[in-house]
From TrEMBL:
Belongs to the ATPase protein 8 family. GO terms for biological process: proton motive force-driven ATP synthesis. The keyword Cell membrane does not apply. It comes from Taeniopteryx ugola. It is found in: Mitochondrion membrane. InterPro entries: ATP8_metazoa (IPR001421). This is ATP synthase complex subunit 8. F-type ATPases have 2 components, CF(1) - the catalytic core - and CF(0) - the membrane proton channel. One of its GO terms (cellular component) is proton-transporting ATP synthase complex.
Length: 52
């Protein structure tokens, strides 16, 4: 493949970079973290008795 024109290398680089960015964005935004409502309810229901 050394006879390929430099514009082809640039096109391939841009295409693979775009695919990497799109794939990373899809993975990042498809993750839904669990809401912290459960832990907040547990904290608010417990009574704090300080021992000092």
């Amino acid at each position: 493949m050394p006879q390929m024109a430099p514009i082809s290398w640039l096109t391939l680089f841009i295409a693979f970079s775009a695919i990497l960015v799109i794939f990373s964005a899809m993975n990042y935004f498809s993750f839904l973290p669990k809401s912290p409502e459960i832990s907040e309810k547990k904290i608010s229901q417990t009574s704090f008795n300080w021992k000092w």
